[in-house]
Amino acid sequence: MSGNEKKVAVFRKEHFNAAHRIFNPKWDDQKNAAVFGKCSNPNYHGHNYELIVQVTGVTDPETGYVMDMKALSRITAEEVLEKFDHKNLNLDTEYFRDLNPTAENIVIVIYDLLRARIDLKLELKVRLYETERNFVEYPA
Amino acid sequence: MVYLTRLEHFNAAHKLYNPGWSREKNEEVFGKCANENWHGHNYDLYVTIKGDPDPDTGFLFDVKKLGEIIREHIIEKLDHKNLNLDVDFMAGKMCSTENLAIAIWQQLHAQLPPAVRLHGIKLYETPRIYVEYFG
C-alpha cells in the first residue's frame, strides 16, 4: 500500500429492540440485586438498541467504495438483527447463556460476528447505544 | 390557556400476546412482537397539562411536583419492569402502546390535584412509533 492512499470511514446505522436481565448466575438474587439494582429484575426489562457499524479502509479504485453498503447492510441484518431483534438476549440467543448481556459484552459479541464476515483489510469498529445516554464502543 | 409538558422515560420488557388465541394466531397477528420470551423498549413519556398560570406564582402547576407525581405513580411502576408481569395497572390488558398510554392517563388523572387539567399523554415506544391519548 502506498503512503498517499486515503482512508475513509463508512458507517451503517441499525436498530433492534430486545429484552435482557443483568444477572450473574453464580450469585444469589440478593447479591445480584445489590450489584445490578433494577437492571436485574427477574422478569427482564428492555431497550431500543441503536447500532453504528464503522468500516474504515482505502476506497477501491474500480468502484469508489470502501465497502458496498448494501453488503454491509445485509451482513448486519443477518448477523445482528435477525439474531437479536425482538428477542430476549438471555434466553433466545446462544451468546449470552454464560455471558452477562451488558452493553459492553453485547458490543464485543456483535463485533466478533461482523468481523468474521468483513474483509480483514478493512478496519471495523462498533458503537452500541443502550439508551440515548448510555453507549459503548469496541474496540476501544 | 397554556399547555405544559413534562418528559420522563423508562425502559421495559413486554410482548404482544393474546392468551385467548393459539400461538400460531398470535404470531400471525403480532409477528416478532409476540416472541414468547419478551422483547423491550426505551419508552419516552410526554405528559401535557393545561390551564391558566396562577397569578401569584406564574405557574400552571409546579413542574417539580408534576415530575414527582409522574415518577411516583408511573415511572417507579414501569421502569426496568416487565409490563405484562410486573405492573398492577396493566394486569389482564394487552400491553400495546395504545393501552399503556390510556392506562397512564387513568393513573395520572387520579393522582393530579383537581385544579390541574390533564391534556394529553404522548408515549414513544421507539423513536419512530408513538401514540397520543387525550382522555
Please, could you describe this protein's structure?
The complex is a heterodimer of chains A (140) and B (135). Chain A contains four helices and five strands. Chain A is α+β, with helices and mostly antiparallel strands and 140 residues long. The longest helix of chain A has 16 residues, at 69-84. The radius of gyration of chain A is 17 Å and the shape is elongated. Chain B is of the alpha+beta class. Helices cover 29% and strands 32% of the residues of chain B. Chain B has three helices and five strands, in the order βαβαβαββ. Chain B has helices at residues 23-30, 63-78, 97-111, and strands at residues 2-14, 39-51, 81-82, 117-126, 129-133. A five-stranded mixed beta sheet of chain B has the order 3-1-2-4-5. In chain B, a hairpin with a 2-residue loop joins strand 4 (117-126) and strand 5. Chain B starts with a strand and ends with a strand. The relative contact order of chain B is 0.21. The A-B interface holds A 15, 17-20, 38-39, 41, 43-48, 85-88, 91-92, 131-132 and B 9, 11-14, 32-33, 35, 37-42, 79-82, 85-86, 126-127.
Q: Main attributes?
A:
heterodimer, A: 140 residues, alpha+beta, five-stranded mixed beta sheet, elongated, B: 135 residues, 3 helices
Topology:
The complex is a heterodimer of chains A (140) and B (135).
Chain A: E1 7-20, H1 29-36, E2 45-58, H2 69-84, E3 87-88, H3 89-92, H4 103-115, E4 123-129, E5 135-138
Parallel strand pairs in A: 1-3
Antiparallel strand pairs in A: 1-2, 2-4, 4-5
Chain B: E1 2-14, H1 23-30, E2 39-51, H2 63-78, E3 81-82, H3 97-111, E4 117-126, E5 129-133
Provide a count of the helices of chain B: 3
Biggest interface goes to:
A-B, 22 and 22 residues
Summing up helix and strand content along with how strands pair, one would put the structural category of chain B as alpha+beta
Mean pLDDT of chain A: 95
| Major beta-sheet overview of chain A | 5 strands, mixed
How much of the residues of chain B is beta strand, in percent?
A: 25-35%
Quote the average pLDDT of chain B.
Answer: 96
The first-to-last residue Cα distance of chain A is 25 Å
Topology as H/E string of chain A?
A: EHEHEHHEE
What is the element string of chain B, with H for helices and E for strands? EHEHEHEE
Give the overall silhouette of chain A: elongated
Distance from first to last alpha carbon of chain B:
18 Å
The global form of chain B is elongated
Query: Which assembly state applies to the chains in this document?
Result: heterodimer
